[in-house]
Design a protein that fits this description.
50% helix, two-stranded antiparallel sheet, Arc Repressor Mutant, subunit A, alpha+beta, 7-stranded antiparallel beta sheet, 270 residues, Beta-Lactamase
Length: 270
């Protein structure tokens, strides 16, 4: 496509976004007009339109323009899409390497811990995406991962919504016993929580580059033989979550760190 076929206002808006994104301190209206080779009034109208769409934000003292929340929201949507694809790849890889295993990914969504991806021996070729499957707060390895690795305030808020006496006392007897188990799990870096129905059941935390807890990767086995190397299974799961954290680190946009207000927005729960 030749330059004569381009929509001039759109092309200039894209130029503005690029120059602002590459600037550490933002861009003044005068600088914008000079680099676009347009009148200041034209630059002002373009900037005002982008501000109205939240793709730019206007700062005062002095007046400068920086990237706005809408831009970062689009980045976040794309990051989530790519990260979910990476999660699916890892789930399939772990499932193939551990015959007979059920592999899951859980996330914290609106105060609940949900199973969002699953592969199981019953449906070996299908990556399942359960809808609204809430995990029991005290009797699953995945839920215990969140309680072990959440900040204290978030863990306490979760327990207020899911009282220990109602949901966990029948298994753990006392809250101290549970907290001792969670402390041991923190030191190990994962939760190993076998049950009667699944003699091997573990989950490991998936962290962002800032060490925010993004989810948990879980593996369980209904049958375990004496010759099975459970230590190798644990290493496999831990290696998988480490690869996810590294993949997420490579995708982090540099511009995200620039504006503290935007960083808080991106890190807030959905």
């Amino acid at each position: 496509m030749s330059n004569s076929d381009l929509v001039q206002s759109v092309a200039r808006s894209l130029q503005i976004l690029e120059m602002v994104g590459r600037s550490e301190a933002g861009v003044t209206l005068q600088e914008m007009a000079r680099r676009l080779e347009v009148q200041p009034s034209t630059a002002h109208n373009l900037a005002r339109t982008l501000v109205n769409g939240r793709f730019l934000q206007k700062k005062i003292h002095p007046i400068r323009y920086e990237l706005g929340l809408a831009f970062f929201e689009l980045v976040e949507i794309q990051q989530k899409r790519v990260f979910r694809q990476e999660l699916a790849r890892v789930v399939k890889d772990v499932f193939e390497r551990l015959p007979g295993a059920t592999v899951t990914v859980t996330e914290s969504v609106n105060g609940e811990i949900l199973n969002v991806l699953r592969m199981s021996p019953e449906l070996p070729g299908m990556l399942q995406q359960p809808q609204g499957r809430v995990m029991n707060p005290y009797t699953t390895a995945a839920s215990l991962v969140f309680q072990a690795f959440w900040p204290e305030a978030e863990r306490n808020a979760y327990r207020q919504r899911h009282p220990f006496d109602e949901f966990g006392a029948h298994l753990w007897k006392t809250l101290k016993r549970l907290d001792d188990f969670l402390e041991q799990s923190r030191r190990k870096g994962f939760v190993l929580f076998p049950t009667e129905s699944r003699p091997f059941c573990m989950a490991a935390p998936i962290f962002s580059p800032r060490h925010d807890l993004m989810g948990a990767l879980g593996v369980s086995m209904e049958t375990v033989r004496e010759k099975d190397d459970k230590d190798s299974w644990i290493k496999r799961v831990n290696a998988a979550v480490q690869s996810l954290s590294k993949a997420e680190s490579r995708k982090m946009p540099k511009a995200e760190i620039k504006n503290p207000e935007i960083v808080v927005r991106l890190r807030s729960p959905p």
